[in-house]
Amino acid sequence: MVDTSDEWISKRTGIKERRIAGENEASSDLAFKASIEALKAAKVEPEELDMILVATITPDMIFPATACILQEKLRARKIAAFDLEAACSGFLYGITIGSQFIATGMYDTILIVAAETLSKIIDWEDRNTCVLFADGAGAAVLKPSEDNSQIISSYLGADGAGADIVGVPAGGSRLPASLETVQKRQHFMKMKGNELFRKAVKAMVDAIEISLKKSNLNIQDINFFIPHQANIRIIEAVVKRVGLTMDKVCINLDHCGNMSAASIAVALDQAVKEGKIKKGDKLLLTSFGGGLTLASMVLEW
């Protein structure tokens, strides 16, 4: 499709394979599958949920919210349901927001889902983006802790000055769909890769330092680091700057690609199922994304 090779992609990004949704699959379909798995693992029935929050930049449609569509699929009616758009930071934004409802006592059981079908907004003629992004979904059920497992600290941030670095120009109120926007391929993702790389490394390092300071922990206390899976060179640069070693980093970029909001959710799930993460482990989760958004969280599993 474009002038590239498997060797070039692997060397520059660390991606060797990806998953792409079917032609008739939307984000809510992937969200439903992930939600069923999460509910099963948590031993929670859909009717026990108090709220559903879906983090996505590829909703089924502009509105209604994909969370409402998911609510109907799960038959979890008459509860709160809404979408959150924080790009690749969406899962951590969602976990942080959901935890506040629990901390205040307003809700008891919350489903957080990160679901993306980025293949639907990729310009397959643009080498800058078409080799990176993939589809996937991950979900988590939040409940009040009965032991030491907890969110120790979290940090959310944004830098709107970088809003033009990555995004989809048309389709919103600024550039409504028209023949011209379609012809100019403005409904596909556009990205300034080099500028994003530079900002991403600094943003993730800053977010890590803030979340660790808030948790009264240092980097040596962390058992596993789960970063946003954007590019292996970004991950390696961040790991080096904060003083971690790669054996403490959970990576699924090589076989999943960049799934935006779903990346950390899926990587966390895979690490747990593989037995890497055990009870009592302290986890550091950090992301950055379009907006620009950034988030970091310290958990005790």
Helix content: 25-40%
Q: How many separate structural domains?
A: 2
Helix vs. strand class: alpha/beta
Count the strands? 10
CATH hierarchy, class of the largest domain: Alpha Beta
Would you tell me which CATH topology of the largest domain applies?
Answer: Peroxisomal Thiolase, Chain A, domain 1
Distance between the termini: 43 Å
Strand ordering within the main sheet:
2-1-3-4
In DSSP terms, counting alpha (H) and pi (I) runs of 4 or more, how many helices?
Answer: 10
The whole-number mean of residue pLDDT values reads: 96
Strand share of the residues? 15-25%
Report the biggest beta sheet as strand number plus sense, adding barrel if it closes: 4 strands, mixed
Query: CATH superfamily of the largest domain, called what?
Result: Thiolase/Chalcone synthase
Please give the CATH architecture of the largest domain. 3-Layer(aba) Sandwich
**Cα-based radius of gyration, to the nearest Å:** 18 Å
